[in-house]
Amino acid sequence: MSLPLYQLADMKVDGSHHKIFLSMPAGADGRVVVTDYNGKSTWLGGLPGASGLALSPDNQTVYVAARDLDTIVAYDTTTLTETARYHVGDGTAP
Fold this sequence. Notes:
This protein has 94 residues and is mainly β.
């Protein structure tokens, strides 16, 4: 299995939805690669500096620290749609 990943910052496993989230921070092309347990993958783009990941306790939301945007971006783990953006302050690089 080959994933579209050339740099890794963080990884979270969502056992409820059988997905693995892998953040790839590389410059303006920052993204989170999402793969299921069978190796089928997609990605969440537009996340420059994507680094830290966190899953909500109920596994319904994955939070991505977009370091270069000074923003935390939330995604629904079922649909992979963006649900919120939280700007955490200029120069904070979450």
